[in-house]
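Why should sequence recovery work at all? Because a backbone constrains its sequence more than one might expect. Tight turns favour small or flexible residues, buried strands favour hydrophobic ones, and helices have their own preferences. The token representation captures these environments compactly. In the example below, the structure is given first.
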């Protein structure tokens, strides 16, 4: 099954990139993280805070990358807001982070 390109992307992934992405997504810690995110989204939909196809992300109040837990408070955010916070905190993603 081919991996779809990102919207607006003209570049296709090489076979090596596809294999690397597939292996990365198959790691147990990534499966656990993805399952937790999916569960949180399902719960938010059930509670009426999000809806299917709304283009929003259900985000942990304290991001998992910042030490948040898999189960915790969540908020519904724009995708741009939820996925763009890392650009504002580059020190968190440098070598020797504390």
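From this structural description, the recovered sequence reads:
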């Amino acid at each position: 099954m081919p991996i779809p390109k990102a919207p607006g992307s003209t570049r296709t992934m090489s076979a090596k990139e596809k294999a690397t992405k597939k292996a990365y997504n198959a790691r147990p810690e990534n499966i656990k993280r993805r399952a937790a995110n999916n569960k949180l989204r399902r719960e938010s939909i059930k509670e009426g805070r999000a809806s299917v196809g709304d283009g929003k992300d259900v985000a942990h109040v304290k991001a998992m990358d910042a030490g948040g837990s898999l189960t915790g408070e969540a908020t519904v955010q724009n995708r741009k807001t939820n996925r763009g916070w890392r650009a504002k905190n580059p020190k968190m993603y440098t070598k020797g982070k504390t």
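A few observations help interpret the result. The CA atoms of residues 58 and 76 lie 5 Å apart.
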